Amino acid sequence: MKQACGVIFDLDGVLTDTAELHYQSWLRLAEELGISFDRQRNEALRGISRGESLKIVLGERAVKYGADEQAAMAEKKNRHYQELVDRMTQADMLPGALDLLRGLRTAGVRVAVASSSRNAKRVVDHLNIRDLLDAVIDGTDTERSKPDPTLFLMAAAAIDVPPRRCIVVEDAESGVDAGLAAGMTVVGLGPRSRVGRAHRVCESLTELTAARLVQMIDRGRTPP
Ligand SMILES: [Mg+2]
Predict the structure, then answer these.
(1) Catalytic one among 12, 92, 171, 177?
(2) pTM of the predicted model as reported, rounded to 2 decimal places
(3) Exposure winner among 47, 56, 103, 222, fewest CB in 10 A?
(4) Are the C-beta atoms of 187 and 207 separated by less than 8 Å?
(5) How far is the C-alpha of 169 from the C-alpha of 216, rounded, in Å?
(6) Which residues contact 53 (CB under 8 A, 6 or more apart)?
(7) Centre of ligand 1 from the C-alpha of residue 12, in Å
(8) pLDDT tens profile 34-45
(9) Residue 97 — very low, low, confident or very high, per pLDDT cuts 50/70/90?
């Protein structure tokens, strides 16, 4: 019998562009605080936790605020973000994402989402893709965020596929490192400067098909 294989997707920046919603909600918080913030500074937040992101947004002003104040700001940013998430629909999937999920389903590949975000399940529900996924592991399931491999290892366990038979699809440097640390084959989405440590680098999910991913697992990984 053919061995099971699994594909584990990061969510933000891979299946949907929540990165833009995060940017809009950080921008709104920064404006409320009278702090300048732009897309260039936002780049530093990719794959970084909410608390750490806040410190980057506040910059040298971070020392002026105590832990409680910072927690309240992070919570406020999260409310801004959830307002935007609640307006999401399946039309907010990135190009190729829905076709790839459907193709993997048809091919009998087990599919999971593993995201450090504590909102991942909410996003998945709004995208209406629950029936195309076998497991969703997010920041509410573990405190450990990428580059720690825990999220990916939990996802592999949830879909009952050994890590060496799993492919991770990631857009963040910390996520690529987490996938490698989990002993999985990693496909990086985006520029080589960011995801170059992945076994294979793509610009977009439209370059991937279920058959090609299964082939990668069966034939062994392409060297980085
Ligand atoms: Mg991401």
Answers:
(1) 12
(2) 0.86
(3) 222
(4) no
(5) 13
(6) 26, 45
(7) 4
(8) 999 999 999 888
(9) very high
Phi, psi for residue 101 in degrees, rounded to 5: -60, -45
Cα separation of 45 and 28, whole Å? Answer: 15
220 pLDDT above the threshold of 80: no
- What is the distance between the alpha carbons of residues 85 and 107, in angstroms, rounded to a whole number? 30
Q: Is 12 an annotated catalytic residue?
A: yes
Domains and CATH numbers, the chain: 6-16+90-219 (3.40.50.1000), 18-85 (1.10.150.240)
Report, as an integer, the average pLDDT of 109-125: 95
Q: Is the pLDDT of residue 178 over 60?
A: yes
Q: Would you state the structure tokens that stand for residue 206, as one six-digit string?
A: 């439209």
Rounded to a whole number, what is the distance in angstroms from the first to the last CA of the chain? 30
3-state secondary structure of 119: coil
Which residues, 6 or more positions from 93, have their beta carbon under 8 angstroms from its beta carbon?
15, 16, 127, 129
DSSP β-ladder status, 166-170 and 6-9: parallel
Question: What spacing in Å lies between the alpha carbon of 9 and ligand 1's midpoint?
Answer: 9
CA–centroid distance, 10 to ligand 1, in Å, is 6
pLDDT category of residue 1 using cuts at 50, 70 and 90? low
Distance 117 CA to ligand 1 centre (A): 9
